[in-house]
Design a protein that fits this description.
There is one protein chain. The chain is of the alpha+beta class and 871 residues long. Helix content is 45%, strand content 16%. A four-stranded antiparallel beta sheet has the order 1-30-27-26, with no helix packed on it. Helix 11 crosses helix 12. The longest helix has 49 residues. 54% of the residues are buried.
C-alpha cells in the first residue's frame, strides 16, 4: 500500500506539472431551433409554460405594422398558441385571454398548469392570478382564477420553490418613477380554499424590475434587473444592477457574489441544471440603453453568453453562448429578452421575445446540457479488475475453513482484534458515506465531524455495559439476548426489523455508488451493479465472516489510500495549495465545528452531540453487522480492543474525509468552470476524480469507492444470513445438523445477493428510487426502538417481554409522527427512538401484567461470568 501511494503521488506531481494554461469547462449547451410561432412578428412579454405535455404561449406585445423608430404603434394581444409536441407545428386556438396583456410572470406548475401572475396593458398594471389549463381532447385552454396578488405589478420576476410561488419586484403602474421592492409568496401545498398571498420581507437591495428569478433547493434567487432613478434631467432613467440575492424562510435574505455584468430582462426564471447550477441566457447589459431603438435594425442584439451561478462556491462562470446558427443553413439567431424559460423534455424552451429594442422574434429556441466526460481508460479498468480479483481470491482462500457454523458465522473466534476493529469500521462505512461525507463538507461545513469524535465517547459505554452480555452469554446474534432477557417474540421482532432494514439497504448500497460511478465515467450503471453484486456474493458465500473481515481489512486500506491520493491531488491542483485552501475555507466559514442554536430542526451543537451519540449506540449495540464482529475475537479483552480500534480510527478518517470535501470546495471555488452541473452533490468526488486524476489513479480511487460499498454490502449479506439461520432456522429446527445450517446460510447469502442486485437494477430501470427512500425511512424507524430494548433490558430489572413489545411499537409510531411533522432534525431520530422505546417499555411493564423470567446474568445488576476463552 505504501509503495502504491508513493507511485500514485508521483503520477500526480507529473500530471500536475504537465498541465498548464486555462482549461475549458466540461458543460456543453446544445441549441436547436423549433418551429416558429405562427406569427411573423413574434411577441415580447408573453405568458409561456407547459401543462402536461402541451406548450402554451399566450398574450404578449409587439409592433405589427411598423417598428417604433418608424412611428409604429405598440399592440397588446390576447391570443393563445399551443404546441402539442416539440417537433410539431404550433397552432392558434379560438380561446383568448380575458384581456390583451403582457409582461407578467409565468410559471409551469406540475399537475396544475401554466400559472400567470400580474401583467400590463397600455393603460394599467394588474394583480390578477390565474392558471391556464389545456383541456383534452377538445384542445382548448381553460382559465382558473386564483386569489389576486397584494397589488398590481408588471415586469416582475418569479419562481416556484418546492410548492411555494415567489414574486419579486416589478412596477405598480405604467411609466412608474420607481420600481417596487416587494416579495410575495403563495403556498400551493395547502388546500386550495386556504390559498392566500403573503407579503414577505423584501430584498434589502434596490427596488428593481426586469430582474431574473431562480429556484434551487429551498431557496429563491433574485439576480440583477434595473432600478428606476432620477436622471440628470430629472426624468426617470435606469440604473443597471449586478447584485444577486437568495432568500430562505429560515435564513432570510443573503447577498451573493455580484454578476460579472449587468443582466436585465433575460429570460426568467433562471434555468436549473443539475442540483446546483442556475443559468441565465444573455440579457440587456445596458451598454446601449440611451440609444434605445434609435439604432433600429443596426442594433447588434443583446448578450449571447450564458452565465452560470453555483451557490455552494458562490461563483459565476460562463457556461457557453447562443450560437449564430443552430445548423449551417439556418437563419441567424439573436438572443431574446422579455420572455420566459419553459422546462421541456430534460431541457428548456425559450419562446419568442425581444431581440432588439422594438423588434420581436417568432423563433422558439431549445437548449439542453451535455456534459463531456473524461474517458475511463484501460489502465483504470486494469486497476479495478485486479483489485476485484484479489477480493475473490481472499474469499476462496477461506472457503475450506468455513465449513462449520462457528467458522462461517464467527470465524472460529480466531480473528485478531485489530482486524476485527478495521472490519467494524469498514462495516459502518458504505460508499454512500465515502462520497457523502466529503460532499457534506463540500456543501456545508464541519459540524457533522462531531459524530466521528463521539465514537470515542461511545466506546467505553459499549465495552463496559453491552459487550459482557454478547460475549459471556455465548450468543451468535445480538437478538438471542432479547429472547433470554424478554421472550421469543421480542427476539423475532428485533431480528426481523434488522433483516428488513438490511435487505432494503443492500439495493441502495449497490445502486447509489453505481449511479455516481456511471455518471462520471460515462459507463452503464447496470455493469457496476452486476459486478459489485456478483463479486460480493461470491466471496461472502465462499469464506463466510472470516473472508468478509479480511476483505474489509484490505478495503479499509484501499479506502484510506484512495482518500489520501485524492486529497493530495486536490491540493496539487489548487493554486496556493494548503495555505490557500485553509484561507478560503476560513473566510467562508467552511471549518465551523459548532452551531450554537437551540432549534431542534437544525444542526445545533446539542442536536449533533445527542443525535450522533445515540446513532453510534444504535449501531454498536443493536446492529448484528457490528455485534457479530465482537464475537469473532478470542476473548472479551480482544473484543474491547477491536471497539477501541474502530473508535480511534474514526477520528483520522473523519478529518481526512472532511478535509477532502473542503479542499474540493476550494478547488471549484477557484475553478468554477470545471464543475459540471451534477445530478447530486454526492457525485462531486467521483466527478473530480474522473476529470482531474491521471490514468491509473482514477482506477485506484474507483477501487476505493468499490471498497467502501462492498465492505458494507458483504457485512449485510453475512449478518443477515446469520440472523436468518440462527434466529429463525436453527431456532425452530433444533435437530438440524451443523453442516445443514451452513448450507442454509450459504443459500440465504446467494438469495440475498441476488435480491440486492435485483433491487438495484429495478431502481436503475424504473422510477422507484423515491419509493425505496420511503421504505428505508419507515424501516429505519425501527433502529432506535430496537436499541431502546437493549437499553431497558440491560439497565432495568422491571421491564418484561410484553412491555418491550409495546415500547418498540410505540417508539416506531412516535418516530413516524416526528418524521412526518419535520419538527425534529433527522439526527435526533436515534435518540428519540431509544428514549421513547425504553421509557414506554418500562412504564408498560409497570402497568401490564406479565411473568418475569429469571434475570440472573441478564442485567448489569448480575453480570454473567467472565469470558475467559483463549488468552
Amino acid at each position: 500500500m505504501q509503495a502504491l501511494l508513493i507511485l500514485s503521488l508521483s503520477c500526480l506531481v507529473a500530471a500536475d506539472s504537465g498541465q498548464g494554461g486555462a482549461r475549458q469547462g466540461p458543460s456543453v449547451l446544445q441549441w436547436r431551433q423549433l418551429p416558429d410561432l405562427p406569427d411573423t412578428t413574434g411577441f415580447a412579454g408573453p405568458y409561456a409554460g407547459v401543462d402536461g405535455d402541451t406548450l402554451i404561449v399566450a398574450g404578449g406585445a409587439n409592433f405589427p405594422d411598423a417598428p417604433p423608430w418608424e412611428g409604429g404603434a405598440k399592440v397588446w394581444h390576447d391570443r393563445i398558441f399551443i404546441g402539442p409536441a416539440a417537433t410539431g407545428p404550433w397552432r392558434e386556438i379560438a380561446a383568448r385571454l380575458d384581456r390583451p396583456m403582457a409582461y407578467g410572470v409565468s410559471l409551469s406548475v406540475p399537475s396544475r398548469g401554466l400559472l400567470c401572475l400580474g401583467g400590463a396593458d397600455a393603460q394599467r398594471h394588474y394583480a390578477d392570478a390565474w392558471f391556464l389549463r389545456h383541456e383534452s381532447p377538445s384542445g382548448t385552454v381553460r382559465r382558473i382564477d386564483l386569489p389576486s396578488m397584494p397589488g398590481p405589478t408588471a415586469y416582475a420576476c418569479g419562481a416556484l420553490v418546492a410548492n411555494t410561488v415567489y414574486v419579486a419586484g416589478g412596477c405598480k403602474v405604467p411609466n412608474a418613477k420607481t420600481a417596487q421592492r416587494t416579495l410575495w409568496t403563495l403556498d400551493l401545498s395547502v388546500p386550495q380554499a386556504d390559498w392566500r398571498w403573503r407579503e414577505m420581507k423584501p430584498c434589502p437591495g434596490p427596488a428593481r424590475m426586469l430582474a431574473v428569478a431562480g429556484a434551487l433547493g429551498d431557496a429563491f434567487y433574485l439576480f440583477g434587473g434595473v432600478e428606476i432613478v432620477p436622471g440628470d434631467d430629472g426624468l426617470p432613467t435606469r440604473r443597471y444592477l449586478t447584485d444577486a440575492w437568495s432568500y430562505e424562510p429560515r435564513q432570510g435574505w443573503q447577498q451573493l457574489a455580484d454578476l460579472p455584468r449587468p443582466v436585465t430582462a433575460a429570460p426568467t426564471p433562471a434555468m436549473t441544471f443539475g442540483c446546483s447550477h442556475l443559468a441565465i441566457l444573455g440579457g440587456d447589459d445596458g451598454t446601449r440603453f440611451r440609444l434605445g431603438s434609435s439604432l433600429g435594425m443596426k442594433h447588434p442584439g443583446f448578450s449571447r453568453s450564458v452565465l452560470a451561478y453555483h451557490p455552494i462556491t458562490d461563483t459565476w462562470t460562463t457556461m457557453g453562448e447562443l450560437p449564430l446558427h443552430t445548423t449551417p443553413d439556418s437563419p441567424p439567431l439573436l438572443p431574446p429578452v422579455t420572455t420566459s424559460t419553459v422546462p421541456w423534455q430534460g431541457g428548456y424552451l425559450i419562446p419568442s421575445g425581444e431581440v432588439r429594442p422594438g423588434v420581436r422574434t417568432p423563433n422558439v429556441l431549445g437548449v439542453t446540457l451535455r456534459v463531456a466526460r473524461a474517458p475511463f481508460g484501460w489502465l483504470d479498468y486494469a486497476v479495478v479488475g485486479g483489485y476485484l480479483l484479489l477480493l475473490v481470491a481472499i474469499g476462496y482462500s477461506f472457503s475450506r475453513s468455513a465449513g462449520s457454523t462457528s467458522h462461517f458465522f464467527l470465524g472460529g473466534q480466531r480473528i485478531p482484534w485489530w482486524a476485527a476493529g478495521l472490519s467494524i469500521f469498514g462495516a459502518q462505512l458504505s460508499a454512500i458515506t465515502f462520497v457523502a461525507m466529503p460532499a457534506k463538507a463540500y456543501a456545508t461545513d464541519w459540524v457533522y465531524l462531531m459524530g466521528n469524535l463521539l465514537v470515542v465517547a461511545a466506546a467505553p459505554i459499549v465495552i463496559h455495559f453491552y459487550l459482557p452480555f454478547y460475549r459471556r452469554l455465548n450468543v451468535t446474534t445480538a437478538y438471542e439476548y432479547l429472547e433470554k432477557r424478554f421472550n421469543l417474540p421480542t427476539r423475532l421482532m428485533g431480528s426481523l426489523a434488522f433483516i428488513l432494514l438490511q435487505v432494503g439497504r443492500m439495493g441502495v448500497i449497490l445502486y447509489l455508488p453505481a449511479t455516481a460511478l456511471a455518471a462520471v465515467s460515462g459507463t452503464n450503471v447496470v455493469m457496476w451493479v452486476i459486478v459489485m453484486g456478483a463479486l460480493v456474493t461470491l466471496y461472502t458465500v465462499l469464506g463466510g465472516i472470516e473472508a468478509v473481515i479480511w476483505v474489509d481489512v484490505v478495503q479499509v486500506l484501499v479506502l484510506f489510500g484512495g482518500a489520501l491520493v485524492t486529497l493530495a491531488l486536490i491540493v496539487l491542483k489548487t493554486e496556493g495549495g494548503i495555505p490557500e485552501i485553509v484561507s478560503l475555507g476560513t473566510t467562508a466559514g467552511k471549518f465551523r465545528l459548532v452551531n450554537f442554536s437551540y432549534d431542534m430542526a437544525t444542526t445545533a451543537l446539542w442536536v449533533v452531540v445527542l443525535g450522533k451519540l445515540a446513532g453510534i449506540l444504535v449501531c454498536q449495540t443493536a446492529d448484528q453487522t457490528v455485534v457479530q464482529r465482537y464475537l469473532t475475537t478470542r476473548n472479551e479483552s480482544q473484543a474491547a480492543r477491536s471497539i477501541w480500534t474502530n473508535a480511534l480510527l474514526s477520528i483520522p478518517a473523519g478529518l481526512l474525509f472532511f478535509s477532502v470535501g473542503t479542499a474540493l470546495w476550494a478547488f471549484y471555488r477557484t475553478h468554477p468552470q470545471l464543475l459540471a452541473p451534477l445530478a447530486e452533490n454526492d457525485q462531486v468526488l467521483p466527478w473530480f476524480i474522473a476529470q482531474e486524476a491521471p490514468p491509473g489513479v482514477v482506477g485506484l480511487v474507483i477501487a476505493a469507492l468499490f471498497a467502501a460499498s462492498m465492505s458494507s454490502l458483504d457485512s449485510s449479506l453475512n449478518s443477515v444470513a446469520t440472523a436468518i439461520t440462527a434466529d429463525w432456522y436453527r431456532r425452530f429446527f433444533r435437530l438440524a445438523s451443523d453442516r445443514r445450517c451452513v448450507a442454509v446460510a450459504r443459500l440465504v447469502t446467494v438469495v440475498l445477493g441476488a435480491m440486492g442486485t435485483a433491487f438495484a437494477l429495478i431502481m436503475a430501470y424504473t422510477d422507484t428510487e423515491s419509493l425505496w427512500d420511503e421504505y428505508l425511512k419507515i424501516i429505519g424507524l425501527f433502529g432506535g426502538g430496537l436499541a431502546g430494548l437493549f437499553l431497558v433490558g440491560i439497565f432495568s430489572r422491571r421491564a418484561h417481554g410484553l412491555g418491550a413489545i409495546v415500547g418498540f411499537l410505540a417508539s416506531s409510531a412516535i418516530l413516524y409522527t416526528a418524521q412526518r411533522s419535520g419538527c425534529v432534525h433527522l439526527l435526533l431520530f436515534s435518540a428519540l427512538g431509544m428514549a421513547s422505546s425504553a421509557a414506554t417499555a418500562y412504564v408498560a411493564s409497570w402497568i401490564l401484567p406479565c411473568r418475569m423470567p429469571n434475570l440472573d446474568g441478564l442485567t448489569i445488576y448480575s453480570l454473567p461470568q467472565q469470558d475467559d476463552h483463549a488468552p
